[in-house]
Design a protein that fits this description.
Elements lengths: L1 E3 L12 E3 L2 E6 L2 E6 L9 E5 L10 E2 L3 E3 L11 E6 L13 E2 L3 E7 L10 E6 L4 E2 L4 E3 L12 E3 L3 E4 L2 E6 L9 E6 L8 E4 L5 E4 L9 E7 L2 E3 L24 E6 L10 H7 L2 E18 L5 E7 L5 H11 L7 E2 L8 E4 L2 H4 L14 E7 L3 E15 L10 E14 L6 E4 L3 E2 L21 E2 L9
Antiparallel strand pairs: 1-2, 2-3, 3-8, 4-5, 5-7, 6-8, 9-14, 10-11, 11-13, 12-14, 15-20, 16-17, 17-19, 18-20, 18-26, 21-22, 22-23, 23-28, 24-27, 25-26, 28-29, 29-30, 31-32
């Protein structure tokens, strides 16, 4: 389970993401280790993340960073760093989240390259049950210190066979050859996020070996659930006013790098809003009510407009990059590669009951016995995205759940009764809509609700 440690507002930038007993934070501070100056290879420089001890005490890099150029990357690039939590894992038998490598294996050294400084690249060898998420560079031909990097427990990461080339030493003249690669995170399941750490994997030669795996940090997009709204009860001929909910029904907390904010650059987000909250507030809305004061049964009809608008959700996704029902990932300016997918519980996008594409009205028909009153309600969900300080990122957009019909009936002189009625589906007119990512998107048919009579005395 992914949670966030509580912190004072002034310490937002230090607030870690916690996954079991693993703490994840971010740094923009680096130490230059080696560069290709003097070599005929394409320019590149190797850097070690160095989280400041007074800001992020106890944090370690997951590996070094290779930059295709020799300019200074301090305060221009951000990478993940990790720390062991002070409390143990939920399952104590799993042990510590982090471990130093047992040793290093040489991948490449620059002998013969003509570079003005010696350099070498090493692969950390993790202990059993752990994996290395990045290679390490040395400013000599000697092994780096085992404290230069930490390996992560295998259940806290996700594997992927997809990599992107960062740099290789073609033209360097070195007696050995090397290519460096970045991890591309795997496809995210519902409620999951995979974060590539921003390190590199060094490989001997210019092609990836068969079955070569890279790793991303595995996060869970946990959803906090509050009590659902209480169904209204008709206590008289006329319904009483409905009260606005005091708190969201569902809340998902998203890390800063997963959200595009129109007010800030990604690095500014890290300081101004290290997390965002996607809130869903459920509340009942009155569809209609009626009072049959006659001697015979009578029919009441209402038409309820759905709150969802295709353009509203599209505008939200365009502005924030967050998608409903499908995976989303890094934008052009994002500092990380990641994949994420919100839970169906939060988004109400689970097939085949996805009604987001259905904007048609809901027709309600009720047959009411004599001297009885009836009120009909539906649940509307309002979605909003807010920053860490509570300010909204976008306007609110809404969704009406056509399956949430609630009927309350009242007989003067008798206790009120409530009846929950399931809608009866009409035959749908289906329009083919192109699938997005790995999900298919098909509109749900317009629904007609069955006629109801009250059997109360």
């Amino acid at each position: 389970m992914t949670i966030y440690d509580n912190a004072q507002v002034s310490d937002w930038q230090r607030e870690p993401i916690r996954v079991d007993n693993l703490l994840i934070n971010f740094t923009t501070e680096f130490l230059s280790i080696w560069d290709t100056y003097g070599s005929n290879a394409e320019p590149a420089s190797f850097w070690r993340p160095t989280p400041a001890a007074d800001v992020l005490p106890g944090y370690f890099p997951l590996g070094d960073v290779v930059h295709p150029g020799r300019d200074n990357i301090n305060n221009k690039k951000v990478v993940a760093v990790v720390c062991e939590a002070s409390t143990p894992a939920a399952d104590p038998e799993k042990g510590k989240a982090l471990s130093a490598p047992t040793d290093f294996e040489l991948v490449w050294k620059d002998s013969g390259s003509g570079a003005t400084k010696n350099g070498s690249v090493w692969r950390p060898l993790p202990p059993e049950g752990y994996v290395a998420l990045g290679s390490v560079c040395s400013n000599s031909h000697e092994k780096p210190s085992r404290n230069a990097v930490r390996c992560v427990r295998a259940d806290l990461v996700s594997a992927s066979a997809t990599c992107d080339l960062i740099w290789n030493d073609k033209g360097s003249g070195a007696r050995q050859s090397i290519s460096t690669w970045s991890a591309a995170p795997p496809v995210a399941a519902s409620g999951e996020m995979h974060l590539a750490p921003g390190t590199f994997a060094g490989v001997s030669g210019y092609a990836l070996p068969a079955n070569f795996l890279v790793y991303s940090l595995r996060l869970h997009l946990a959803v906090r659930v509050n009590p659902k709204p209480t169904a209204p009860v008709l206590l008289g001929v006329t319904p009483e006013p409905l009260h606005a909910p005091e708190q969201p029904t569902y809340t998902a907390r998203l890390p800063w790098f997963a959200v595009k904010d129109p007010l800030f650059t990604p690095l500014e987000q890290r300081d101004h809003s290290p997390f965002y909250q996607l809130e869903r507030t459920d509340h009942y809305v009155l569809v209609g009510h009626g009072h049959n004061s006659g001697q015979d049964s009578t029919t009441f009809r209402w038409s309820a407009q759905r709150a969802q608008r295709t353009r509203g959700q599209w505008a939200f996704s365009t502005l924030t990059s967050i998608e409903f029902g499908v995976q989303w990932g890094a934008q052009t300016l994002s500092p990380f590669l990641f994949s994420a997918r919100l839970s169906h519980e939060l988004t109400q996008c689970e097939m085949p009951n996805n009604e987001w594409l259905d904007t048609s009205a809901i027709d309600v028909v009720a047959v009411v016995d004599s001297h009885k009153a009836v009120a009909v309600y539906l649940i509307q969900s309002d979605y909003s995205l807010v920053r860490a300080d509570g300010t909204p990122v976008t306007t609110t957009f809404s969704y009406t759940d056509g399956r949430s019909l609630h009927i309350s009936q009242y007989t003067p002189g008798a206790p009120a009764s409530t009846v929950a009625v399931a809608p009866e589906a009409r035959v749908p007119e289906v329009t083919d809509i192109p699938a997005t990512d790995n999900d298919s998107a098909t509109p749900l048919a317009e629904t007609a609700l069955e006629e109801v009579t009250d059997t109360a005395p």
